[in-house]
Write the structure tokens for this entry.
Amino acid sequence: MTSDASNGPAIPLLEMREVTKRFGGLPAVQSFGFSVRDGEVLGIIGPNGAGKSTLIGLIGGAISPTAGTILYQGQDIGRLSPHARSHLGIARTFQITQPFAGLDVRENVLVGALFGRRNLSRNEAMRVTDDVLERVGMTPRAGLKGDQLTVADRKRLEMARALATNPKLLLLDEVMAGLTSNEVDQAVQLIREINRSGVTVLVVEHIMRAIRGVSDRVLVMHHGRKIAEDTPDEVLSDPRVIEAYLGERYSKQHQATQGSQTEGSAEAIEDEWKQGLA
Amino acid sequence: MDSTEPKGTKPAQPQEARTSSLMARGRRSWLWSLLTGLLILGLIGTIPFQNDVAGLILWTNVIMFCCLAQAWNLIGGFVGYAAFGNVVFFGIGAYTVAVALQHHLSYVFGLLLGVIISATFAFLLGLPVLRLKGHYFAIATLGVAVAIGEVVEAEGIGGPGGEASLPAPTFGGLDTNTVFFFAFILLSALLLLGTTWLTRARFGYALVAIRENEQAAEALGIPTFWYKVAAFTLSAIPTALAGGIYAYWQQFFNPSGEGGAFDPSRSIAMVLMTFLGGAGTIVGPLIGGIVVEYLDNFTLISFPTIHGPLLGAIVILVTIFLPQGLIRLVQELTRAPVALEGPEAARVSYIHRIGEGVRRVFRFIASQGV
């Protein structure tokens, strides 16, 4: 179904037009517009509270927009429930992982296979489940309960369940947060493989290194607005982005030194962010 | 199944491991649960042949409560929604039969009408209340049950003040007590089969997924709201049937007060029995119903003065030490040692396994206890 190349003026897989979401009076996402092309990996980064998870909620259907339209394959899905969007091929993971705690890993994934986009019988769903577990490398953990897993495995389970629904558009909400650098590499590898199999991926992430390694394009959010959208390297050297992450002072320093490479700034942002966490 | 064989043929055991189903842990455990349940019902089914009328009446009552608990298990156990007002369906079933018989309609017609009215009511009630969660849902359902009981009393449905009296049942010369007894046994057996089917069906998977994490269930494509409404409606049907059987069996009953058709303590009993036996399991509610109802009668007869406190103390002890029910205890006892699942487990002797199981049960109680 999904075409690899995005040549020609085809309809984008997902398009947001002037979408606003307010919680009480507080805008989490403000007249936001962007589109996801069929077959690409789009990264979304932004500091804490930028509205990234709200954006995922808006696309997945858990949150309904205050204003604006959300188009998926040209169809307005702004008022559809999350399960209806799942049937259309939109799958998401949760930043705070939401396993079926009392069920084991295989059963967790089985639910996705049974109810997602394809309407599978139990036996077919079992087969899909085993394939997905193999793909994400969780076969050895298949018998563990949802609440017995490490952080990395919980994140992988989120991805496995979403994959089992057979999505066209996969929304990953900080699946790499809290992972060791080794685990991040594995996750990046996995996301690439998923994308190669024809799934369009939207990656929301805090970790610069991960997002650079995996994204075709990167979009930067700040205070609920889009402040940049470009290739990963361009975005990471954009003064507005550096300012959003590190404050004005650093941004001016950075501009003064001019010559500094994008490599350096990306690392600096990441370091600073890690310090912020501590 | 020789696991020592070096990477020769494709190993057989992953194929077997794949047959694990969603709720029935381990292979064929659903079958064991079903057989256990049918065996229990079969043993109880011999009671009418003992010519003990008091015993027969006692056990009819016990099985009636088992049916109520089994029906409550659908919404409370599988979906995990604490419906505290399911007695309302029991009351509707009972009063529909009462009114139908008073109007010289057939008993079966009254039963079916009660089912239809209850199911419709559950569906319509579910539309608003199943949007609520946790305590709000529990209180809303409880409130509705109390309110309907008051309406029946105030309107004098079935008789002045709601005091219904029905014509004496006749079943072509058969002993009426025995007929009602087997009616409840049949209902309980049907519920047992239905619950077993549920643990293997798509529909059941959806309900359990909702219980374990409603948000995730919705995101994975389950229309959670409609599944909840369906489960709630489904739980109303056997409850109404039990009410209809109860009505004709009793011939006289009140809407509210102790032992009334809308008595909220019946709702409490459904919850208690299901949790004591094991919520969301196949035989749990049946076992829970028998244990609670039998203990209730036993303490009432043996210790009439402290009957209430004694039963209360038992309930407190059980909820402290067995919050997951008796069935969980059995599962803990029979489960193969964690480290030895798969072909290794088969080699461990039964004596060893029982010893392990007993130790595990003690650990389980110690870890679960407050």
